[in-house]
Amino acid sequence: MAQATAKPALFTYKGTDKRGKKVSGKVTAPNEAAVRAELRRQGVVPVRINKQLQLFAARGKITAIDIAVFSRMMATMMAAGVPLVQSFEIMGAGHENPAMQNLILAIKTDVEGGTALADALAKHPLYFDDLFVNLVTAGEQAGALETLLDKIATYKEKTEAIKKKIKKALFYPASVLIVAVIVTAILLIFVIPEFENLFQGFGADLPAFTRMVIDLSNFVQAKGWLLAIMIGSAVAAFIYVKKRSRAMRHLLDKMMLKMPIIGAILNKAAIARFARTLSTMFSAGVPLVEALQSVAGATGNIVYEQAVLTIRDEVSTGQRLARAMEDSDMFPNMVVQMIAIGEESGALDQMSAKVADFYEDEVDAAVDSMSSLLEPLIMAILGVLVGGLVVAMYLPIFKMGAVV
Length: 404
What we know:
The N and C termini lie far apart (98 Å). The protein has helices spanning 32-42, 54-57, 64-79, 84-94, 98-112, 117-122, 130-142, 145-199, 208-244, 246-257, 262-283, 288-298, 302-316, 321-328, 333-345, 348-403, and strands spanning 9-16, 22-29, 45-51. The longest helix has 56 residues, at 348-403. Strands 2-1-3 form a 3-stranded antiparallel sheet. It is mostly helical.
């Protein structure tokens, strides 16, 4: 039975170089013997070699931005003529994220052992999806890996920029409303009871609005913990079902697309990702039907994903892409016409890129516009919530002043 390949670990070393100068650094290798062999190759005589604890080495989270930077650095170093394995060594040893160090140097170990780069990346599907692996495969087969890595880096950077815009569009109003709820809860739990104690000495009936707010405060104080548990359980159950139910995600995505303001942004973002992915895949020489499979998963919305899969099925039977897109009723006429021109002129990748550029700019403008529209609306909501509580507490005082 073949012996399993040891998992790469991070080693630190201290030693002297050929000139007797003290040097130190980090190396990732399966074992200490491999570290010594690597140091001999570099002309370093090791004095001390220490293996870092796996707990420390694995700390950190790998983000999509890390993968985009990885792609860009790979493309840059290959363009500069740096060998593939040495590129991995440079990036792995110099990366600040220990988890990313482990990932890069694990790929380096596989490549050094004779594994194709695409196959080495495919062993880490959490970070390198089918689209990434397919593009690298196409680059290796065509002898244009440097060019394809550059396209991947550009694609990753563009798609992450779109995601950031979407998060910005959703995060701002959500965060302000959460702050409003927290402030309201603080007022109900700590401030309103003080006013209630003050009003007990008035010896008069309180206004209905004030009485309602005090009753709400008493309820929150008595049952607030139960209410918090119910809300937390409902949110946890919602997240659980959403992650495991495709039907639920489809319903939510469909509802989001139809929401005012935000729905328009999400539609434009899905079209931008569709066009950007199609352009990247097609320019890499990936067949259209196969490319559409990856495009479907990259749209970021199940409604668009199902529409693209239907388009793929129609294209596989000989239907033109533009006609299949038109039949789906998911794409504006301008997008369909530009794709049709790209098909007829043999420049589908270029026309798709133009569509992506246009809709990425549209998303930028729409997010900025939405922020401007939401600011006064959010201020009004905050004013109603907080101002309403303040007015409710001062109504009895105003009433008493009028009587006096």
